[in-house]
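Re: the 179-residue chain
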Amino acid sequence: MEHTCDACVRAIMVELAQSFITPFDREDIAALAHKMDDIVDSMYGVVQRLTIFHVDEVRPSALDLADIIFHSDRGSQYTSRMLLDWAEENNVRLSCSRTGNCHDNAVAESFFATLKNEMYYRRSFKTRADARRAVFNYIEVFCNRRRPHSTMGYQVPGELMDTFFARAAPGWGKLPIAA
């Protein structure tokens, strides 16, 4: 589903760049396509975490909590009277970020945007395994071992981590490079 959605967003962006579409603005269509991609990315992320952490079942109380809390930013679609009424009728608690707080998912969103722009959109993959390998190599080999990051004072994350562990636990040596 994730791959299908990304392909759909790519097709929408190509079509937007090549043609004039009315009555909707290009910006509205692009925003909608990117929001669709964000939602599918979030769903895919949940599935990945369930798989990575070998979650076979979820406590009923966790399911109850998921059913009754709806967290969002303060976009107009999430603060509308219709949603407020629906939440009240269904005993759903609405949770919103503070006004102007764009930092809820900023780091993750920024990283995934960079990954997509620098690697994913520039390539095509024959299989999911090829895509997974490319993402793994991009993160573990390029980002963590070669690419300086502005948020870390233009240091390479792997080197910064090695320095941290050398100070925190002398004798541990360097972290292994992922194969």
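The helical segments are 2-18, 26-52, 60-68, 81-89, 106-118, 128-143, 157-168.
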